[in-house]
Structure formats: C-alpha cells, structure tokens
Design goal:
single chain; alpha+beta; Helix Hairpins; SH3 type barrels; Alpha-Beta Plaits; 5-stranded antiparallel β-sheet; 4-stranded antiparallel β-sheet; 7 helices; 11 strands; about 50% helix
Length: about 270
C-alpha cells in the first residue's frame, strides 16, 4: 500500500513548489485577462493589451519568487542581482528603453487607436497594434509596416479617421477667356446634384488665384469620411462633363515667348 503521508513528508517542498507554480500560472492568466478586459472597456484596446501583459508578467514574477522561497533560496540576493543585470541591460539597450518610454507617452496622449487610419511622416495605413517597442501598420496598399515608437512620438501624425466628416477640395482651372460666373454656376449645379454632399457645413466655390495658364477655382464640400474617394471621382467627372456641355475650356499650361518688338512665337507646354 502506498504511504502518501511519507511521500508528502519526503517531497513536501517540491510538491508545494509545483502547486504554487501551477496555481500562479493559472491565476496570472485569469487575472491578467480580466484586467485587460476592464482596461479595454474603459481606456481602449491598446491600453488593455499593455495592461494584460504587465499584470501577467508581474504575477509570474511573484510566482517565481514564491517558488524560490520554498527552496530556501535567498530571494533578496536574486532580486539584487536581477536589478544590477537590469541596469546593465538598460545601458546596453538605450534605443529599446527610448521606444518603451515613447510607447507610454503614446498611450497617455492617445493620438490614434487600433483600427484607425493614420498618416505618419508620409506613410499612411491602418493601425494594427501599439506595442511597447513599436507601432504596427497595414498600409493602404496592403503592406506591413513596423515603426519604432520613438520615431512615432517625434514625428507628425495625421489621424485620418478620427472624425466622421471630412472636407474635400476639388481644384478647377478655366481659361482666361471664359466667363467665371458661368463656370461657378456649372460647378454649383454639379455639387447640388450629388446626394452624398452635406449641406451643413454649406458647400463653397472660391476663386483662388490667377494661375500661369488659367483662372483657378476650388470647390470645397463636406462629406462622410467613408465616401471620400467615391465623391471625389464623381465630382471630377461631373464638372468635366458640365464644362464640356457648356463649352467651357479647361486649359493646359502654355507660354508665349516674344522675340524683339514685332515677332512672337507661341509655345505650348504640356
């Protein structure tokens, strides 16, 4: 017959250590998951993910310390050695430390959330993840891009999808010989016929400047962000069709070069 009491007495330390380890790992997983979900609900998904990881590793560390204590290992000495090693590693990995600190600044500042479309230093895409070391982005042409947090924190960030409505600017040029009022009326009719354009804020048509080869106008309208590209195409095609039907010329760049007093040569430049 197996004497469980003697087995327990002989291996009590090992059994307690295994019990602490298994219980600690299960508890770490559960508690970190609950903490992450709570943080996600209140503060956002990226803070929730970081909270989940931090809680998990802190509890795992506490579990390991408890296991070492069962074997009468000097935990203070281990922690001191770990602290010294951490300082050495910190000096050797200053770039990583900078990225981690920048990651916390990004979390506190919240310039973007996971899933939003952003532009960072000319590179645009959807945010996949905000980690302690880097930010991951899927570009609009479906490429994976990893940017160190220190770079993200120190460059210009444009959040493309933070607001639901966007202003769309359509530049239009007409020949100098054309009637400006007539061109404005044609553009206005195209804008009013498009059901995707919001009437509040009200659409605008402004005359911007005398260009090199044209009178430059600009149509400014507000639309739902999700319809941005569709509306841009619709307006460009609509304005071009309206101008063609009305005989309004959209000129290409050209210059006139003069030689002497009575000679001139027109040079058209595409």
């Amino acid at each position: 017959m197996i004497d469980f009491y003697n087995i327990y007495a002989q291996y009590s330390t090992e059994l307690k250590a295994i019990l602490i380890l298994v219980t600690g790992m299960i508890a770490s997983k559960l508690i970190s998951s609950v903490s992450g979900n709570i943080a996600t609900a209140k503060l956002g998904s990226h803070i929730g993910g970081i909270t989940r990881n931090v809680v998990f590793y802190v509890l795992i560390l506490a579990t390991i310390i408890s296991v070492l204590a069962e074997f009468k290992i000097n935990v203070t000495g281990v922690l001191a050695a770990a602290g010294i090693m951490g300082i050495v590693i910190g000096f050797a990995a200053q770039t990583s430390v900078s990225n981690i600190i920048s990651g916390f600044f990004l979390i506190a500042d919240k310039p973007f959330e996971i899933g939003e479309a952003i532009e960072i230093d000319g590179q645009a895409g959807y945010v996949l993840d905000i980690g302690l070391l880097s930010t991951k982005i899927r570009t609009f042409d479906n490429r994976y891009m990893r940017i160190p947090n220190s770079t993200v924190a120190n460059t210009r960030i444009i959040n493309i999808s933070r607001y639901e409505i966007r202003r769309l600017d359509i530049p239009v040029g007409i020949a100098f010989k054309e009637n400006i009022q007539k061109a404005v009326e044609k553009i206005d009719s195209v804008l009013k016929s498009n059901e995707n354009i919001l009437m509040e804020p009200e659409p605008m048509i402004i005359i911007t400047k005398f260009g090199e080869s044209s009178i430059d106008l600009e149509a400014r309208v507000w639309i739902q962000r999700k319809k941005l590209f569709d509306v841009r195409s619709e307006l460009i095609m609509g304005i071009k069709t309206a101008f063609d039907e009305a005989g309004i010329e959209i000129p290409f760049p050209h210059r006139t070069v003069y030689f002497g007093d009575d000679k001139k040569v027109g040079i058209k430049r595409k």
